[in-house]
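Narrative of accomplishments. A recurring question from our advisory board has been how the design workflow behaves on a single, concrete structure rather than in aggregate. To address it, we present the structure tokens for one chain from the evaluation set, followed by the sequence designed for it. No filtering or post-editing was applied between the two.
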């Protein structure tokens, strides 16, 4: 219910508000693990061995470049912030119309933010557990997935990648649940 367009609300406004919210959440979550995501530890932006991401913004960097995860995420967060600050793309004044390409821009932003979740789960889930942030990460990601899978944004990522990543996400959740069960068993024995 939290991801459905509220009755009487503008679809573009709803997508814009949620895009800003997801950007803020992902930025905050990634910010907590930056000590674990360095040029040395993550020389490539990836989500496991099958998925490597190269950066291009279409303006400053037109041809995709291979870069480290921290550099890619820095490029990404700067690029998204620039999009969000652009009044012609994300108007902040009531009554100012959204551009015709707004939904396409929002989909691109969300697709790229998805990659940060993927990177965190694949490369940095152990530090997330150490920091006891897995519940927040899982809730944020679950909300994100429900939002992008609603009818409005179904074409966010190709289903093959999304399915592969979601399977991995479920493995992480299962692993996390197993760790909690083992911890509870250990405490009950003591």
């Amino acid at each position: 219910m939290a991801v459905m367009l509220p009755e009487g609300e503008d679809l573009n406004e709803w997508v814009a508000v949620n895009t800003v919210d997801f950007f803020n959440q992902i930025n905050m979550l990634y910010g907590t693990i930056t000590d674990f995501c360095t040029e040395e530890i993550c020389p490539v932006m990836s989500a496991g061995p099958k998925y490597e991401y190269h950066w291009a913004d279409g303006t400053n960097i037109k041809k995709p470049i291979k870069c480290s995860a921290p550099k890619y995420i820095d490029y990404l967060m700067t690029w998204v912030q620039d999009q969000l600050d652009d009044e012609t793309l994300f108007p902040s004044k009531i009554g100012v119309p959204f551009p015709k390409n707004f939904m396409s821009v929002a989909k691109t932003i969300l697709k790229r933010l998805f990659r940060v979740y993927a990177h965190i789960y694949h490369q940095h889930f152990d530090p997330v557990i150490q920091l006891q942030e897995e519940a927040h990460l899982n809730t944020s990601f679950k909300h994100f997935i429900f939002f992008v899978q609603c009818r409005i944004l179904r074409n966010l990522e190709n289903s093959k990648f999304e399915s592969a990543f979601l399977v991995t996400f479920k493995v992480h959740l299962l692993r996390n649940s197993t760790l909690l069960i083992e911890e509870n068993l250990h405490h009950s024995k003591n």
